[in-house]
Every structure is written in C-alpha cells, then in structure tokens.
Amino acid sequence: MKGTFKAKAKTPGAIADNLLIEKIKEGDYEAFEELVHKFETRIYNHCLKYLNSQEDAEDVLQETFVQVYKSLSTFRGDSAFSTWLMKIATNNCLMKIRKRKRMRSVSIDKPINYDGSEMTREIVDWSKNPSLMYTNDEIRLIIEKTISELPEDKRIVLILKDIEGFTNMDIAGILDMSVPAVKSRLHRARLFVREALTEYFDGSTEIAKMDIVK
C-alpha cells in the first residue's frame, strides 16, 4: 500500500511557497531563484547527512532543483512543498548511494566541517542522564556503528524521524510507503539500536531502560 499525502491547514510558510510556485508556473524565473535560496541550505544539509560527502551533496542538491524545476507542474499542493521537495532529494540520495561500489558509514555524531563552521548530528542528549556521562564517547561510538549497520530502509526512517524530526505521515510521503510501514520500520530500527547497546554494556539495567532515540 503506497503512502498518500493528506491535505493540511496551510501555514503562512506554505501559503508563501504556493504563491512562489504559482509565479514559477507562470514563467517567473526570479521566483524559482527565491525558492531555491529558501530551501537550498536545508536540502544540502539533508543530503550531507546521508552521503557524508560535500561533493556528492552538492551534486544531489543541483540534481534535485533541476528535477523540481522540470516537474513543478505536477505538484498539486496536496502536501507541503517542503515534504515533496524532501522526497525528491531523498530519492536522489538513495540513487547516489546505490551507485557507489560500497556503502560509506555516515558518522552520526562526528561534526562535519563546512565553510569554516561545524554541523553536529546528535541522536540524543546524554547529559540528561548524569550517571552515564562517563560512557558518553563509548556510547556514541557504538550507536554510530549500530546505525551504520542498519538495513538501508530502516536506517533512513530512523534518521528522518529521530534526527530530522519529520512526522510519520511526512516520512510515509517522502519514502512512498504507508504510515504503518513507517512505524514498523522505526520500531525495528530503534529496537535494534537499543538491543545492541544493552548487549554491548552487558545488560546494564540503566541502558536497558533508556529510550535510545525519542
């Protein structure tokens, strides 16, 4: 069963996006440049999380907006433009990954240097549990390794939900699947990470009780 987008109440941002889209459909290229400027940083960062390569992320960013420009006439506004855009970017990331001879491990916590600044990827605020502070680095390393070992379909759902904060409905639209399928994959991914940590720390009671990801 394929996921479908349900219409939501339009936010001011969504209304502004739709106005730009209408201008673009009428041939206003400056409106398209404005749309690119509005979303390019978010899409680039999104791609960088998966690809861990500035060059690949830049390629996918360009490919995504070329594809958006060509297919914007098919956007009906049933979902938020940002969700539709993210779906295109995610699909392009997956295509890029599958073309590689081997999968690269994406570092979830290691900062990425970009134009002199750092982007961090936090999966959980460990400082909320002071009793585990002494194992922060160890925990992060095993989480990073565990997530990198997840099957691609579950890993992507975990990142979209627990790192990027998309709703289950949004993820269903981005990945073209049903909401129950999203929940199932997310549950299995979280369970895999939690069990790996529990086993790694030899059944520590506190680790076993923790919500590894929100």
Map the helices and strands:
Blueprint: H1 12-25, H2 29-51, H3 54-71, H4 81-99, E1 112-114, E2 117-119, H5 136-148, H6 152-163, H7 168-175, H8 179-200, H9 205-209
Antiparallel strand pairs: 1-2
Helix pairs in contact: 1-2, 2-3, 2-4, 3-4, 4-7, 5-8, 6-8, 7-8
Distance between the termini: 27 Å
Going by CATH, the homologous superfamily of the largest domain would be: RNA polymerase sigma factor, region 2, helix turn helix motif
Mind telling me the CATH class of the largest domain?
Answer: Mainly Alpha
Unreliable runs, pLDDT <50, ≥5 residues? Answer: 1-9, 103-109, 121-134, 205-214
Count of DSSP-assigned helices? 9
- SSE series: HHHHEEHHHHH
Helix content: 55-70%
| Amount of beta strand | under 5%
Q: The CATH topology of the largest domain, please?
A: Rna Polymerase Sigma Factor, Chain: A
- What CATH architecture of the largest domain would you give? Orthogonal Bundle
Briefly note the structural class of the backbone.
Answer: mainly alpha
What general outline do the C-alpha atoms trace? elongated
Annotation, overall tally of beta strands: 2
Radius of gyration using CA atoms only: 19 Å
What would the average pLDDT be, to the nearest integer?
Answer: 75
Strand order of the largest sheet: 1-2
> Biggest β-sheet: count, sense, barrel?
2 strands, antiparallel
- Provide the domain count: 2
Description:
The two termini are 27 Å apart. Helices cover 63% and strands 3% of the residues. The protein folds into 2 domains: 1-104, Rna Polymerase Sigma Factor, Chain: A (Orthogonal Bundle); 121-214, Arc Repressor Mutant, subunit A (Orthogonal Bundle). A two-stranded antiparallel ribbon has the order 1-2. It is elongated, with a radius of gyration of 19 Å. The protein has helices at residues 12-25, 29-51, 54-71, 81-99, 136-148, 152-163, 168-175, 179-200, 205-209, and strands at 112-114, 117-119. With 214 residues, the chain is mostly helical. It has 9 helices and 2 strands.
